[in-house]
Amino acid sequence: MPAAPVRAHALPSVTTALRAVESLLLSGGQRTARRNAWTAVLEDRRRAKDRVEAEYVLDAVADRRS
Questions:
Q1: What count of Cα atoms within 13 Å lies in the side-chain half-sphere of residue 9?
Q2: Which element (helix H / strand E) includes 13?
Q3: Residue of 3, 4, 21 lying closest to 12 (CA atoms)
C-alpha cells in the first residue's frame, strides 16, 4: 500500500491569530480606532527615542566646546 502524501500546513503567525480574534470581537470602527491608537503609541516611542538621541548629540557637542 503506498504511503499517503504528507501535507505541510504553515501554522498561522501570532499576529494572524490575534487579528482573527480581533475581527470576531470588535466591529470595524473599533478595530480601526485600536490600530490608530497603537500606531500613535509607536510614533510617540519613535519620537521619544529621537529626542534622547538628539540630546545625547547636543551634550557631546557642548562638552567638546567647553
A1: 2
A2: none
A3: 21
> pTM for the whole thing?
0.55
Distance of alpha carbon 63 from its chain centroid, rounded? 36
Chain center to CA of 29:
20
Q: Which residues of the chain have pLDDT under 50?
A: none
Q: Which long-range contacts (CB under 8 A, 24 or more apart) does 46-51 make?
A: none
| Cβ neighbourhood burial of 51 (10 Å; 0-12, 13-18, 19+) | exposed
CA 54 – CA 2 distance, rounded (Å): 67
Please spell the DSSP secondary structure of 34-58, one letter per residue.
Answer: HHHHHHHHHHHHHHHHHHHHHHHHH
